[in-house]
Amino acid sequence: MFPLTAPSRRATLLWASTTFAAIAFACSSDAIPAPDPFVPTPTLAPFPTAAGMATPTPELETVTATATAIAAPMPEREPPLGVLRTAAPQPPVHFDPHQEASPALITWGPALVYDRLFRFEPDGLAVGAVLGSGGGVACALCESWEMVDLTTYRITLRRDAFWQELPPVNGRRVVASDVVFSLRRQATPGWPNAGLLSNIESVAAIDPQTVEIVLKRPDAELLEILADGHTVIVAPEAVSESGDLLEGPIVGSGPWLWKSTSETRSAFGANIAFYDPVRPGVTTLEIAYISPGTQFTSLLTGIIDFAQLGPQEFATATSRNTDLRVVDMPQSGVGLEFAINTTRSPFDSLETRRALLGALTPWQDLGEIWSDDAFVSVGLPIIDPDWLLPESELRPIFRDFASAPPAPLSLSDEITIKVGLFDDRYQEQARRIADALSRLGATVTIEEVTTREFGDAVWFGGDYDLFLGSQPPVASLSDYLLAVYHSSGAWNTTGYSTPVLDGLIEAQAVESDPVVRRQTVLEIQRQIMMGAHRFAPASRVVRWVYWPYVENFRPATQRADGSFLAAIRVGDRPPGRR
Known about the structure:
Elements: H1 9-21, E1 83-88, H2 103-106, E2 118-121, E3 130-132, E4 135-139, E5 142-149, E6 152-157, H3 176-186, E7 200-207, E8 210-215, H4 222-227, H5 236-240, E9 256-261, E10 265-270, E11 284-289, H6 292-300, E12 306-309, H7 311-320, E13 325-340, H8 350-358, H9 362-368, E14 374-377, H10 391-394, E15 414-420, H11 424-439, E16 443-449, H12 451-460, E17 466-470, H13 477-485, H14 499-510, H15 514-531, E18 534-546, E19 550-551, H16 564-567, E20 569-570
Helix pairs in contact: 13-14, 14-15
């Protein structure tokens, strides 16, 4: 068994921020023969470690760029056409992607100008894409990659990736030292996105085109981490102008050129020198910062082209206009989670827990409480449905009461269900579970708790017999399994674990073969359900609604990824619509 680590600070902050807000709103490319002169690696502290926490930022004052600026070649491409308009709830508070975790900057703000080593591909359709629990991951800035051994990755950069023709980089080639600088900068101790890179031991430029990353231990999710929307590559010269990027300059190597950002909108133009011949697909991208209710109205009136809608807004929008199209995308951390404390009587008995699950009717509850965009699952942060335990294996666990085994409970058992005040559906689901327990012979009390108390005292603190609340939005499957289901997990408040489950969790965390890892993850879900202690009665998909003229619309936003925006093309709008 390899050493376990505590859950990352970022995962904890993501749980807290989303919980409290829940009640409101190897691939290849054509090489360019002659490489640029190599930009010297900036003088930085060694890759940050826990022992170096006293150093607040890297040493940036010695950064220089000596490469000769070379104009980016014009790739043969489909010309971008039209304007794409969408909306997000709020604007970013500053412009530095390494010092901000919010999607306001990363997914729907100025950080869209930056590129990453890898990007997510819907359904893993790209050539060379590697499938994982977060979907397909394919090369972006990289041309190819290889595993030298279980902890060493060697990544070869594209020769046709250039910084935008803006000062202070002025169109020079993206080189390995840019990647080294960016990863070391992101890993600055105390910064919000440093935890993503906590398993990296070192990163080095082997030559102008090659980056070598050495891990502390094997990690099945390294490519997903490098495709994360927060793991962007920035130019050392841009940082050196003021020591940070809080106020810019906003210059990247991605598909978008930044035009402006205000309290009400961000605007971007097409980077026609971008290496991908089909990205971006439009000449202009505009993102308005408006409330969810205003987004609904703006979509129906054609002011914006697509939006993510809640269940009620979705039903209203699609009933008012049958021309609207819909795409459902799974999203981790959205929905309802149910857990049983196995350290408390009567649920220290596996027979009792299985009897409870057998008395529940989750598929009936979906239709009567939730909606047709919800499904029953184990509740793990998995995007790819092929990695989820199929309904055919889940249904036999839940039987109607008439076929459930004899009730092992007695009237002397007093049980409290703690339910977070997220919305009324959580309370209705709690009442149904209470009814099932009552039929089994128990005396049941439902205790409603605030979202803050639920996060602190219940989910983290373990003060419950049973709980119902929001799923935690943890992006990393391995982090979640190690923290929540492993016997040494800091968040394992149900108290359930077995040596078999521990071994499977550890095995998937280091498995580099996605086929083998998928089978391991499926078996983990079987083992969790055999323990009858935790599941998700209503995991939610995210519903996106868009107009028919919006083409190639695949809104995969896992790990704050906004790269899907560059793949969208806009066809002919109806007469009278701008």
